[in-house]
Amino acid sequence: MAVDAQATDTHPDAEADADVIVTDDLTKIFEGRGGRVRAVEHLSLRVRRGEIFGLLGPNGAGKTTTVGMLTTRVIPTRGRALVGGIDVVARPATAKQVIGVVPQTNTLDRSLDVAENLYFHGRYFGMGAREAHDRVRGLLEQFRLADRATAGVDELSGGMAQRLMVARAIMHDPDVLFLDEPTSGLDPQSRLALWDVIGELHRRGQTIVLTTHYMEEADQLCERVAIIDHGRLLALDTPEALKKSIGADTEVRIHASGDLEALARELEQVPGVDSARVVDGTVYAYLRAGGATLPEIITHADRKGFALQDVGVKETTLETVFIDLTGRELRE
Q1: Which tens digits make up the pLDDT trace of 253-282?
Q2: CB–CB of 228/56 below 8 Å?
Q3: Domain total in the chain
């Protein structure tokens, strides 16, 4: 499991460097009446040009603060960050030209219609009127919003509004698109539709940084994932490599009465059970391929006098990796 992300000096010409984002010891400490809060600590990583890079962790892990620093909205306490070869602290105005941001909250201008939200964004970034109009037409078609061009943004569904915010964020053709919890609050159908949009942008070569607490989202979309908790980078690798690092192919979750720690120790004695642990009142047992079967586990627990209430089986996921790293579940 590779936290392979030590940054070194990068050439200022982003086109000459495969790494479009470089952070080195990036740290943010918030000072308040409640004391010092270390939102992000010593974050060093690289994001390659053209990849979808995921920041996975529970709410409060430091994902949004990280994106805030990379997009000039939050000033780091220390460390540095380069996006497109530009130091985001030393040259924030220049950095804004090469980034597109879709925040967690809806920031569409309700005084403008759908097309105008795109058009004026382009004009703000220095596009000429004709170029902006042409770009708007193309984006409305690409994001399946052409029939809503003159509609007010308050008439859009949640999924449509989110697609419009993504379209607006790439209106000026940024080097990097930041999506901060882009599907939070969307219904399953709208979430899948947005996944399709993200996949299409990726196929066109767009670099995307995606923050999420949805395991399946990071697994499905991201080429590499950084798992973050309490402001610290815990692991960084491809989803497949992270899951393989667990050393198990199947996860069994057991709800039972009695001494759960004792049950976990007993299950570890079953041949083919790689390990077992108690997390948030649930026993997790990890099975190797061709090892113990579910009936064998249930029978063993029953013989040892444990009353099982519910048993579930699933393949190893990124949540399994998070539990292995932190000893707790990945929750919203």
Answers
A1: 999 988 999 999 999 999 889 889 999 899
A2: yes
A3: 2
